[in-house]
Specification:
This is Circularly permuted ATP-grasp type 2 domain-containing protein. It holds the Pfam family CP_ATPgrasp_2. The protein folds into 2 domains: 386 residues, no CATH class; 61 residues, 2-Layer Sandwich (Dna Ligase, domain 1). It has a 5-stranded mixed β-sheet. α3 crosses α11. β6, α9 and β7 form a beta-alpha-beta unit. It contains 13 helices and 23 strands. It has 476 residues and is an alpha+beta fold.
């Protein structure tokens, strides 16, 4: 797998008994060595059975459309020290604050464009830009109420932000269920290690959503809006509604009357103040966006523009998590906050630039090339893992539409020991912490650790066969 930062041991080449275990993993490592393979295998089987019984699955699109897949769960946790988390948390607060200021700015005064820091066409020709939001004031000036920021570790252990997910970021239910499973399988580990809790996330989320209700609403009604049971993340939508104690609704359950959104109930219409929506902008209101959408609520945009309902996340946030905007986030932090970025971006080549395109074309076998509007690990080239033919096919796509791509060096992502068919072996991982923005910016300690289960693979996405791990933030 080459040289990489190993989360558990100081040996980046492999997992072996003689490697020096990092101090914060020693307690866990000692425990692991005392477990018999049969015990661990039995616990893993119990986890799979429970996840399947509870219905913690991921619907697959594409070739296997309609099938549901169990997201593989690994019982070796990813452990992060309190000091590492403190720095990461500060960087995440800084980054999300700047991103919210950026979205407000581009839909109002456009100061960052006037200052020449971001070319106007990068924003206003962006597929995620919504002109309908121009000049609209949203509650507390918050656009990305829930952000899932993907962080990777590379080099000697430095953290980098790989991408910002500000539209409808998913995965938090797996973070919560992974922790619940580890506590059920291995309660003794939680007695021996001071691990920061995450189970209060639904309460934090509900408080956060209630805090951004429209002006004058003292007891806001919150709902979770789902596209329906065929959506890949439907389990999560139902889970979060249940955990928060709020209604899970589809577009057909809501209607607009007197410039207000109402929910149909057995006791008659009930006013709705905050909608945690888990469907994309295009489908929200057939009168404003896609007229063929049967998932949305006719007239929703007019109520939203009038400030009589809050949508989380706001319409038009996607312009800030687009991969063509990502290279400018460090500039946003300096521009809006007058601070140096705490968390670095991955170095990025913008193929719309002549010199960056030339470099990318000359180094395709060594780079990762991504579609600027792509997501879920699709539409990308991982140069070192691609055949010559795949590289040449991608070269043609790049030449045909250079504006549609960015390129990055292939990072040697950190790896964590993981159970695979032939025992324990290192597998590459990332981390998605979930950042809540309301009256304050807050998050539970940790996030969802995703793991690429294929040997040598750098693609951790669930849709591409990735698995998950529990993430432990030590409190000492």
């Amino acid at each position: 797998m080459g040289k990489f930062f190993n989360e558990m041991t100081a040996d980046g080449l492999a997992h072996n008994a003689s490697a020096e275990v990092r101090e914060h993993y020693r307690e866990f490592c000692g425990w692991l060595q005392r477990q018999s393979p049969d015990t661990i295998e039995r616990k893993r089987a119990e986890a799979d059975l429970t996840f399947r019984r509870v219905g913690i699955t991921f619907a697959v699109y594409g070739d296997d459309a309609g099938t549901e897949r169990l997201i593989p769960f690994d019982t070796i946790p990813r452990i992060i020290t309190a000091a590492e988390w403190k720095q990461m948390e500060a960087g995440l607060v800084q980054r999300v604050k700047a991103l919210n200021m950026f979205i407000h700015d581009i839909y109002h005064d456009q100061n960052i464009v006037k200052a020449g820091l971001i070319p106007a066409e990068q924003i206003y020709k962006n597929a995620q830009y919504r002109p309908e939001m121009q000049g609209i004031n949203v509650a507390s000036d918050i656009y990305a109420h829930i952000a899932g920021v993907d962080i990777v570790r590379a080099g000697e252990g430095e953290f980098y932000v790989l991408e910002d997910n500000l539209r409808v970021p998913s995965g938090v239910s797996y973070m919560l269920e992974d922790r619940k499973m580890m506590m059920r399988l291995f309660p003794e580990l939680f007695a021996r290690n001071k691990i920061a809790p995450v189970d209060h996330y639904p309460d934090m989320l509900l408080d956060n959503l209630r805090s951004v209700a429209p002006m004058g609403i003292t007891d806001p009604v919150v709902v979770v809006m789902t596209p329906g049971m065929y959506n890949s993340a439907y389990f999560e939508h139902a889970f979060l509604a249940q955990q928060m104690g709020v209604e899970l609704v589809e577009g057909k359950d809501l209607f607009v009357s007197d410039n207000t959104v109402f929910m149909r109930t057995t006791r008659g219409p009930k006013r709705v103040d905050v909608i945690y929506r888990r469907l994309d902008d295009d489908f929200l209101d057939p009168l404003a966006f896609r007229p063929d959408s049967s998932l949305g609520v006719p007239g929703l945009l007019s109520v939203y523009r009038a400030g009589r309902v809050t949508l989380a996340n706001a319409i038009g946030t996607g312009v800030a998590d687009d991969k063509s905007i990502y290279p400018f986030v460090p500039d946003m932090i300096k521009f809006y906050l007058s601070e140096e970025p705490i968390l670095n971006n991955v170095p990025t080549y913008q193929c719309r630039k002549k010199e960056d395109l030339a470099y990318t074309l000359a180094n395709l076998p060594d780079l990762v090339v991504k579609e600027v509007h792509g997501a879920g690990g699709y539409g990308m080239l991982v140069g070192p893992a691609s055949t010559k033919q795949q590289i040449e096919d991608f070269r043609a796509r790049l030449l045909a539409n250079p504006n549609g791509y960015i390129a990055q060096p292939t990072l040697a992502l950190s790896a964590c020991p993981t159970y695979v068919e032939n025992g324990i072996a290192p597998r590459h991982i990332d981390l998605r912490p979930f950042v809540l923005s309301g009256k304050t910016i807050s998050m539970v300690p940790g996030g969802l650790t995703r793991v690429a289960l294929q040997e040598g693979s750098l693609v951790v996405n669930s849709s591409q066969g990735g698995g998950t791990k529990d993430t432990w933030i030590l409190e000492r």
